[in-house]
């Protein structure tokens, strides 16, 4: 199951948890991670992604960034902290534009096979859609997406109506993406993850070589977890309804000019929203178990695998 991750790594720390979950699913042989696109311009977001990739033994995983890159640091920084302390390849691996990385990843896959998981903004995916043929493929971006992508799952919006950061921060970009993405979209909304708290169990097993544990402690504080929108989206995209979710009937998500999202059921619509079928504590427990799992391929790890009680408290 080939998977592309699009992340706004640099903002909220749950992107670190989501990328860790994706690596664990790859360790289990459930997915083949193709690449990661970073849809925020800070170079530290790219560095943080590389740190996680290295920790899980995949330093060669292609990472694409937004250009021009900046030295911006989020007010509750973890990306710069992680990039500077954990990334051995920072400065030695050439940075590449995300659209080039995405095109190359898609071009090498079988038709209708790729899952795209978007846990951030949509600038990179729009750039992909509008891209011209290149050395990777003689297809336009839209043709490449239609040919290669099987499923697109996004963490975005609040339903049946509301405002959520991934939409509102760049409302016009979000309107363009939701209206013109040429394939169906599955949405995990804000309301699903605000009470699913994960990552609190990382601090007691903090190790100097673990960027995920370090990021959560840096952003949240020692022993404090974070809401889990992005890890849940990765889980939903890969494991589907069996992970504790239910898709709605088909319908249409509309993004209003101020970034408000609305949901209308429509049997001809290209969109679905998601509901939970399990308690928040149970979903958090399963995600925490993945966050506490030792990397399969890393050369070094001091993580201790632990049984986790509901709510993320380690035994």
From TrEMBL:
One of its GO terms (molecular function) is hydrolase activity. Keywords: Hydrolase. It comes from the Bacteria. The keyword Nucleotide-binding does not apply. InterPro entries: Ribo_hydro-like (IPR036452). This is Nucleoside hydrolase.
């Amino acid at each position: 199951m080939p998977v592309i991750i699009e992340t706004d790594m640099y903002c909220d720390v749950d992107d670190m948890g989501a990328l860790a979950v994706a690596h664990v699913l790859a360790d289990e042989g459930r997915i083949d991670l193709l690449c990661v696109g970073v849809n925020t311009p800070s170079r530290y977001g790219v560095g943080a992604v590389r740190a996680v990739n290295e920790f899980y033994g995949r330093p060669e995983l292609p990472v694409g960034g937004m250009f021009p890159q900046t030295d911006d640091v989020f007010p509750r920084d973890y990306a710069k902290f992680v990039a500077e302390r954990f990334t051995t390849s920072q400065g030695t691996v050439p940075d590449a534009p995300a659209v080039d990385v995405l095109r190359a990843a898609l071009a090498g896959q079988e038709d209708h096979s790729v899952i795209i998981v978007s846990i951030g903004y949509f600038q990179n995916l729009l750039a992909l859609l509008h891209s011209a043929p290149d050395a990777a493929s003689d297809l336009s971006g839209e043709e490449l997406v239609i040919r290669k992508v099987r499923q697109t799952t996004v963490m975005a919006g609040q339903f049946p109506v509301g405002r959520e950061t991934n939409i509102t921060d760049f409302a016009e970009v979000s309107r363009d993406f939701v209206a013109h993405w040429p394939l169906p979209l599955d949405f995990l909304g804000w309301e699903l993850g605000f009470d699913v708290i994960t990552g609190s169990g990382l601090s007691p097993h903090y190790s100097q070589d673990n960027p995920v544990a370090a990021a959560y402690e840096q952003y949240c504080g020692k022993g404090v977890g974070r809401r889990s929108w992005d890890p849940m989206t990765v889980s939903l995209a890969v494991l589907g309804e069996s992970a504790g979710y239910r898709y709605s009937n088909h319908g249409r998500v509309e993004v209003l000019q101020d970034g408000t999202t609305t949901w209308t059921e429509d049997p001809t619509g290209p969109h679905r929203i998601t509901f939970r079928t399990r308690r928040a504590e149970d979903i958090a427990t399963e995600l925490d178990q993945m966050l506490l799992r030792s990397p399969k391929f890393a050369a070094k790890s001091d993580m201790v695998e632990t049984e986790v009680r509901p709510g993320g408290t380690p035994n």
